[in-house]
Amino acid sequence: MKLLPTLALGMLAGVLPGIASAHAHLSGASTDANQLKLVFSEGLEAAFCQISVSDIQGRSIETRAPMTAPDDKRVLLVQPATALPPGEYDLKWRVVSVDTHASNGTFHFIIKP
Question: Is the whole-model pTM more than 0.85?
Fold first, then answer.
C-alpha cells in the first residue's frame, strides 16, 4: 500500500513545475525613442496587456495600445505617442498570457542622446 502515496507524490511533483512556470515572465527588452519591445517567456493576449511609462520625475508618458508582434505573440510592442526625449524612464507592465495567467513587473531604462 505504500506504492499509492508514492505514486501520488510523484504525479504531484510532475504537475507543480508546470504550474509554477505558467506565467509569462519578461525575458528581454529593447528600447529606443520610438518603440519599446518587451519579450516574454510565453505568448500574450495583447487586448488584456497594460503598459505604463513614466519619466524619472514620475510624469506619465502617453503610449499607444500595446500589440503583439505579427510573427511572435511573445513579443509585446509599445509605441510612445511621441518620440521619447533622452532621459531615464520606468515601465510598469501587466500582461495576460495565452493560457490566461496574469503577471506584472517593472523595469528602468534610459534613452541616450
Answer: no
